[in-house]
UniProtKB/TrEMBL annotation:
This is Copper amine oxidase. The chain crosses the membrane at residues 6-28. Keywords: Membrane, Transmembrane, Transmembrane helix. It comes from the Archaea. Coiled coil: none annotated.
Length: 646
């Protein structure tokens, strides 16, 4: 080849690259990032992920290579066709007792949305308590409490997490890693499947002493979260895809393999992907399980209404280099930090992808989302350290297509959201830096959200719970200023707010339990909170720490810690506030009971006039009329893995 030939090939390459970039620019101008790519074969999935090189995932990316692959043949024609076509809350329930010798009424899991049950490690039916702890399913005949006893200790394979109860059926979720052989679609040759799997094991518990496994539905990945609506369970799993040899996800109905017919993928590059599978199954009967798979980011928020599932996560952008940061315009209105939200319609087990949207900022938890009259309301915090505000909060209203139709932005500069609660046309929002502003936000006009009122008090609330139409309970931390002028959290703070005048919310009363180091499971898990207005009880698990000065010490401020663990029980009066009814100590109740396992109370339930406090290692029943009277104390099998393991 002559030197002229080398030059010709170089020029040809440059021309082709320029054409590719031009094609991408036109494509990007016409394409919204809300349009998902539907991939229907292993070959398409392999082509999609082939372009996600380590350079794109971790730095020094060439965006033209990835985006051009989506537009110039990196995804097959069938996927491109589908791609273009795709353009077009609640307090804990109180339930009447079951037939037989059970309680006349009893509490159930404290859920966000009425009619949408949330999985938990403990359930009850007014007679029996069902607990998964470690690798054991324990069933306790708990009512009457004086005759309480364990009737079943059933070993469960794998890492057991949570369960559902539906009449005479239990659904237990457990993660395992095992080998399956299945025959891929279009071939006759079996291949091995070595993926981590989540099993939804269904037990017939008509005979509580002898549960019988009747079905096992397995989905790829580890267990993330689950909901139950009527007779159908929806559970979400996730795992890292094999970038070198990807394949379509497979679910199992017993030994029968069902390969996913499609995988939904974002049209924009991210620095890391997770393969999510949303699987539905009927709790009773022999109906087929349904599943949809999605190549998304690290999902950290699941919100479910009676008709839709929303999966949200912070969008992870590939690294664009220091030049991008220097070129970023100070007048840029939209921050780089964004959250992606996907909507999937659900009905009787069917799952249908509907829409994708993005909003600036990140979501705190599931209470940052709420569906109302078909619209989705979203509360986010933006952390933009290149701006003057550093941090601020936003509220958005999205239509069913997840297009933004209303916005309220730049709330509480330099603060972030600590809790949110949507109730009807109102949003109660707590932000914090040095004081706790409780905002009352009007969402009656979805196109024009607005602030109605604001209250500032010391401390903050991690969880907000409606008491009635005009009162709100906040559970969080008190705060104090340290010697350097900073703010540090101290004891657990319980606050009652009067919001009858939405323009002027007031604090009725607050109670602080313990000092620095005190904690409660409610601060990170709303299912640990129990409120029953008729019995006038509010139960909160507490790890209380009190600092005791060391007398005669030559070191100023020297102290030891006294620790108490158990449950505080209060009465609530909307006019005057809280009245302590008693305390229930669990286990030794000392600092030797580490916070993350053992006798730390994680849940409370009641059956008639008995309050049951539940930890990983025991169930204690106390008389609600006299909380010093212990009616039942049963140890259960458990292990000492930290709570986050579950």
């Amino acid at each position: 080849m002559t030197p002229d030939g080398h030059i010709w090939h170089l020029l040809t390459g440059i021309i082709l690259m320029a054409m590719t970039i031009c094609v991408f620019q036109v494509f990007a101008a016409e394409t919204s990032e809300s349009e998902m790519v539907k991939i229907t074969s292993t070959e398409d999935l392999e082509e999609y992920l082939k372009n996600v090189t380590p350079q794109i995932r971790y730095g020094y990316s060439n965006f033209a290579d990835f985006d051009a692959a989506l537009t110039t043949g990196g995804v097959t024609e069938s996927a491109q066709k589908v791609y273009s076509e795709s353009k077009a809350s609640a307090p804990a329930s109180i339930t009447s007792g079951a037939e037989g010798a059970g309680a006349s009424d009893y509490s159930t899991t404290n859920v966000q949305v009425e009619g949408v049950d949330e999985a938990d490690f403990v359930k009850n039916d007014g007679k029996y308590i069902y607990v998964v702890s470690g690798d054991t399913l324990t069933i306790v005949d708990a009512f009457p409490a004086e005759q309480g006893k364990i009737i079943t200790e059933l070993p469960v394979s794998g890492s057991v997490s949570e369960l559902f109860l539906s009449k005479d059926r239990l659904v237990v979720f457990t993660d395992t890693q095992e080998e399956h052989w299945y025959t891929p679609k279009g071939t006759s040759v079996p291949v091995p499947d070595y993926t981590m799997q989540t099993h939804a094991v269904i037990y017939d518990i008509s005979d509580r002493a002898h549960p019988k496994e009747v079905r096992d539905i397995a989905a790829p990945g580890t267990y993330e979260n689950a909901r139950m609506i009527g007779d159908y369970v929806y559970f979400l799993t996730s795992g890292t895809p094999d970038y070198n040899s990807p394949r379509m996800p497979v679910i199992y109905d017993g030994d029968v393999a069902i390969e996913s017919l499609s995988v939904w993928c974002p049209p924009f590059p991210m620095n890391e992907y997770q393969m999510h599978t949303l699987t539905s199954l009927p709790v009773t009967g022999s109906g087929d399980p349904q599943a949809e798979s999605f190549l998304l980011g690290y999902s950290n928020t699941l919100y479910v209404s009676p008709e839709n599932v929303y999966i949200a996560y912070e969008k992870q952008e590939p690294w664009r280099g220091w030049d991008y940061l220097e070129e970023k315009s100070s007048e840029q209105k939209e921050p780089d930090q964004k959250s992606v939200v996907h909507r999937f319609a659900i009905k009787n087990g069917d799952i249908t992808y509907k829409a994708t949207g993005t909003v600036p900022g990140y979501l705190l938890n599931q209470f940052s989302l709420d569906e109302n009259r078909g619209n989705l309301r979203v509360a986010t915090t933006v952390s933009d350290w290149s701006s003057d505000e550093k941090q601020y909060s936003n509220v958005y209203v999205l239509d069913p297509d997840l297009k933004t139709i209303g916005r309220l932005e730049h709330l509480a500069p330099e603060e972030k959201i600590y809790s949110a609660r949507f109730i009807g046309d109102l949003l109660y929002l707590v932000t914090f830096k040095q004081t706790d502003p409780l905002f009352v936000i009007d969402l009656s006009n979805p196109y024009q959200p607005g602030i109605l009122g604001e209250l500032k008090i010391p401390g903050y609330s991690d969880y907000l719970h409606p008491y009635d139409e005009t009162h709100l309970i906040g559970i969080g931390k008190d705060t104090e200023e340290n010697e350097w002028g900073g703010i540090i959290p101290t004891g657990v703070k319980i606050a009652l707010f009067d919001v009858s005048d939405v323009n002027n919310p007031k604090l009725v009363e607050s109670v602080v339990i313990g000092e620095k180091g005190s904690d409660s499971a409610v601060l990170s898990d709303h299912r640990a909170f129990l409120l029953d207005k008729e019995r006038n009880i509010m139960a909160i698990p507490i790890r209380e720490v009190i600092h005791v000065p060391v007398e005669g010490s030559k070191y100023e401020g020297s102290h030891t810690e006294e620790t108490w663990q158990g449950t505080y029980v209060f009465g609530v009066d909307p006019e005057s506030g809280f009245t302590e009814k008693g305390r229930i100590k669990q286990g030794t109740g000392t600092k030797d009971d580490d916070w993350w396992y053992g006798s730390t109370v994680l849940r409370e339930i009641f059956m008639d006039d008995v309050l049951y406090t539940i930890s990983r290692d025991r169930i204690v029943g106390s008389d609600l009329g006299d909380l010093t009277k212990r009616l039942m104390d049963i140890g259960i099998k458990h292990d000492d893995r930290p709570m986050w393991y579950y």
